[in-house]
Amino acid sequence: MITRPVTVVVIVAVLVLGVAAGITAKLTTKSTPHAAGCHPQHAFVPAFFYASGIWQQAASTKPVPSYMILDISGLGAGSAPVGHFESIVKQEQTAGVTILGYSSTAYGQRPLSQVEADVRHYKAWYGVTDMFLDEVRGIGSQLPYYRKLAYYIRGSNPGASIWINPGDYPDPSYMSVSNVVMAFEGPYSAYHEIDVPSWAFDYSPDRFANTVYATSPSQVTSALSLSRSRNAGYVYVTDGTGGNPYSALPSYWQTEDAAITQGCPNSAP
User: Fold this and answer.
1) Domain encompassing residue 45
2) Which of 34, 47, 48, 141 has its CB 3.0 to 4.6 Å from that of 13, i.e. a possible disulfide?
3) What pTM does this model have?
4) How confident is the model at residue 264 (pLDDT cuts 50, 70, 90)?
């Protein structure tokens, strides 16, 4: 669960039956795993901050983060477009960042119609077609709910990327509805303790993301090394803490971004 206050405006930074079925079939095809601990990685940002200056900082980083997650209301797209964010999204997209529209699923309890409204509003108001579905339990009994959402998202926005956030490893069946699974979200102190199920290594690293907060500058190298060994293709590490550890970029952002995207350290050319 991406955590932060929901009483303020914040920003993060997420067909016909035959086509949708074809996409699902593609997602369930397992890929040859990369060598353990050595695979391409990409930076992304849960951008739960309002200030345009922080967004500009991310957009001016070289390379820019692959994805940033946009949340308007703390729940989803809100009830009306916000001009401040309209201009920011255009700025980030021009810089080459893919924006994910945030939508809480309330652990499968939020009405599908509300999440579907978020999908429509992100597209109509911000030109955002990729989605980040938060608060996912990842249990088998709720898979039909997420299948319906995935079908709606891809039917409305062909080719859309769907990220889901159970915060740990879900039932493997969820790989059939998502492009990327947030397989860890938590503090660095807990990152050492997680167990990666063997099935996760049957998939390409670009199917998994890790978010590690409360990470001091001296712990960043270790966190990134662990993320590589755990088959995570997308990673975000921050020294942020508290109710919203994503209220700003980490103090070491440029160093982190370079370390994530430079490739495998100490590997043969």
Assistant:
1) 17-261
2) 47
3) 0.86
4) low
How many CA atoms lie within 13 Å of 260's alpha carbon, on the beta-carbon side? 30
Among left, alpha and beta (phi > 0; psi -120 to 50; other), residue 109 is alpha
For residue 148, is it within any domain? yes
Strands 130-134 and 98-104: parallel
User: Is residue 22 classed as helix, strand or coil in its secondary structure?
Assistant: helix
pLDDT at 236 exceeding the cut of 90:
yes
Rg of the chain over all Cα atoms, to the nearest angstrom: 17
Averaged over 82-88, what is the pLDDT?
97
Q: Which positions ≥6 away from 213 have C-beta within 8 Å?
A: 185, 186, 187, 188, 237, 238, 239, 240, 241, 245, 246
Instruction: Check which CATH number belongs to the domain holding 35 and give it.
Output: 3.20.20.80
By C-alpha distance, which of 239, 268, 242 is closest to 3? 242
Quote the pLDDT of residue 266. 45
Q: Is residue 75 part of a domain?
A: yes
How far are the Cα atoms of 110, 116, 151 from residue 3, in angstroms, in the given order?
17, 22, 27
Residue in the structure block whose two tokens are 């890790």: 210
